[in-house]
Amino acid sequence: MILSRSGAGLFKAVIVAAVLVLSGCDQDAATEWTFRKTLEFQLKGECQNDACKLAVSTQIKACMVKANWRDYIEKKDDEVAQEKFLLTFFPCFVDTAGVSYF
User: Fold this and answer.
1) Are 97 and 88 in contact (CB under 8 A)?
2) How many CB atoms lie within 10 A of CB 24?
3) Which helix (H) or strand (E) holds 70?
């Protein structure tokens, strides 16, 4: 098999993102979806257990908002904005006791 299982998932995400963009889907919605799915794929790869993966799936939208993901995207060259996003985003994923997975 040319693509691993996780590689196939990323490939599907890229194809769906391309379809959304080409089909006239709102560009902001397509940008958000692509960014979210890319982060979700990467974070799940870092998870050590299923509970972490579930937390990523269920908490990612709220964590993106909390970390102001749009500011992160718009200020790609601003190190302060980048660091602020990273320091807010990753600790946002927590277990039922409130302990961060990352």
Assistant:
1) no
2) 8
3) helix 69-74
